[in-house]
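Example record for the data management plan.
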Amino acid sequence: MKQNGLPIETFIEVFIEDKLEEVKDKPQEKPFYEAATTEEWLAEFHRWLDSHKDKNYLVLPDEAYSRENIYWRNLMEIDCYQTQSQRQARLRCANRGGDDGA
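Corresponding structural encoding:
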């Protein structure tokens, strides 16, 4: 198979060499996180926030973030992976407000 009168292998070599030269001659830009000013970071962050306005995310009530709810949820998750005696020891510890290492 020939492209522009050249064997395909030669065409690909020339194409790749041309692209490599373009990249080599192009000045390297710093990534955004290195080059951006505080104002640019804030503007980009606000653009990102605005891009999520139309999403239908579940919003949890403030109570969901209370210490009691967080620890009770963790206790229940841990509970699934423990034996009966480990669960009982964990619950006794939780009721006392300490940690017995169970």
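Summary line stored alongside the record: Strands lie at 2-3, 6-7.
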